[in-house]
Specification:
about 30% helix, alpha+beta, Antithrombin, Chain I, domain 2, 8 helices, Alpha-1-antitrypsin, domain 1, single chain, globular, 11 strands, 2 domains, 3-stranded antiparallel β-sheet
Length: about 290
Amino acid sequence: MRLALLPGSRFSMLLMLACTLGSSTGAQLTRPESPVGRNTAFALELYAQLQPNPGNLFFSPYSISTALAMTYAGARGETKEEMRRVLHFDADPGELHESFDRLQHRLDEAGKLGGMQLKIVNALWAQKGYPFLTDFLETAKSHYHANLNQADFGTEAETSRNAINGWVTQETHDRIQNLLPSGSINDQTRLVLANAIYFKAAWAKPYDKSLTSTQPFHLSTTQQVQVPLMHQTEDVNYTENADFQAVEVPYRGNKLSMVILLPRQVDPRPARKLAGRTEAPTGRDLFPPIQARV
């Protein structure tokens, strides 16, 4: 079959970045109790909640999970229980933070491959003099490698906001600017926790620009637009069922890949039937050991 790929597509395709890291390791990291498995379940459930909003949708579940995992280290009582349930943090807290640490280490190693840039960083801005728990700060530093910065939100809220925005802009190579809008930080702020991801990679098999052609792309059952679509015929991991087709398109080095889920029908909710699955529908769990030419 021939597959047309559109970067930044709207509604009709669900894209995921999969960390394969070799066959045996990939299988290990996609267990439901692994950070990949937990994050995938959270990602699909979050997508189902965000999808009804109009416009394009692009978000990083890993960023959200990582930032909230750091916050989880300081949560107690009902707040902690609600976070555990929503984020699928079912592991022992100590093992949970260690698993995030191991995953980030593997991703850092993958980002050192030629032809790929992958940078994941965390940082904290804490109110000067506020009595944060030592265990919380130590967990953020040791397991999430978060730099701790002192700030005076009471008298320098705007200066602190600009500093945080500048850090995000720098770490994302100018892709994200003004993350925190004016007024989002004030004298009641005690802690700002930030995660930034920058990813840029070449495909394992580059696309031929001369094969790009303008074709219809369905926004809904009643709307479509004409867009440039890339084309390629290649052997890739492929799977399908009654609801969707999926391919795994590797980046150079074959350590990371893009997983594309394409609904069989023009339906803006491809993740709804996936949400709630106990196994992680990415990597080795999603794709049996078969390939297809697409």
